[in-house]
Amino acid sequence: MSDLEIRPARDGELKAIGELTLAAYSADYGLVDGVGYAAELADAARRAEQAELLVAVDGDGTLVGTVTIARPGTPFAELSREGELEFRMLGVLPSATGRGIGEALTRAVIARARELAATRVVLCSLDTMERAHRLYERLGFARLPERDWEPHPGVTLIAYGLDL
């Protein structure tokens, strides 16, 4: 995808990034919010302050994807341990799915982990996100069932890791 740029988010884009993330989760995963997660998905400004926020921008300058990168012990880290890098809230604009944007963002996270000399990249995903799971497995991520967890009753997150 030569017309796709992956780069850090810019301040003027944060509202649009939040809207994109919320739209991606609502369209792809049928997000039903009874636990406040929609507000967290929409709050890209907070993610930009407390984590690394990357965006995918297509050739005409349209934001088409985003991902949040968290180091262990930081507010957005849910399961990473020392030496690991975690990513969360990977989202692709619904009208841009199927173009390899999610893969490009995931590869950017892996590259960032290597820059930071991390030994593993980790993530957790709703157990129903089967399309995302296929992407992660195709890229070499393996399940880490010992790190699966439930942030709220009835919400199961399954863990994956990629050793570097």
From TrEMBL:
The keyword Transferase applies. Pfam families: Acetyltransf_1 (PF00583). One of its GO terms (molecular function) is acyltransferase activity, transferring groups other than amino-acyl groups. The keyword Repeat does not apply. It comes from the Bacteria. InterPro entries: Acyl_CoA_acyltransferase (IPR016181), Bact_Acetyltransf (IPR050832), GNAT_dom (IPR000182). SUPFAM superfamilies: Acyl-CoA N-acyltransferases (Nat). PROSITE patterns: GNAT. Keywords: Acyltransferase, Transferase. Residues 4-164 form the N-acetyltransferase domain. This is GNAT family N-acetyltransferase. The lineage of its organism: Bacteria, Bacillati, Actinomycetota, Actinomycetes, Pseudonocardiales.
